[in-house]
Amino acid sequence: MFKLLIFAALLTVAYSQRQAVAYLADPEGKSGVNGNITFYETPFGVFVVGEVHGLTPGKHGFHIHEYGNISPGCKAMGSHYNPYNMTHGGPNDKIRHVGDLGNIEADNNGIAFVNMMDRVIALRGVNDIVGRGVVVHNTTDDLGKGGDEESLKTGNAGSRLACGVVGKNSNF
Ligand code: CU
Ligand code: ZN
Question: How far apart are CA 159 and CA 140, in angstroms?
């Protein structure tokens, strides 16, 4: 039993290696929103940790988009990363885009502390987000429950305040 526990612990360490990071900013420098997100691979999913500053208090849509292109407006990041051709949803829904991480919530100082575990995004395989884009939006993602067509595509999260590319960290 003890040997089994040691084996499980070693397996966990071996599987927790990959780490990726994204530095978020407005490519045009207008919104003043910036942040830093780290993605830790674990046996239970990807742990997403970081901070986003310069937001209006409240919820802001937070997604992985298809492309890592930070051209002005963050528009070249494309749509939500969606390799299974699903409709938009929330992070806890079965039917969702791989990139649907829901919302982050800024406090009265405009800071959102990000701390979430996601079982769908990955740092390898089909659901790999490395090289793709992280986008923070100006309004709340309705998680596909808005009752209109746009809700099932984007969650009506509005314009793109800041974005960044998910890159391999030194210990990837
Ligand atoms: Cu988005
Ligand atoms: Zn989506």
Answer: 11
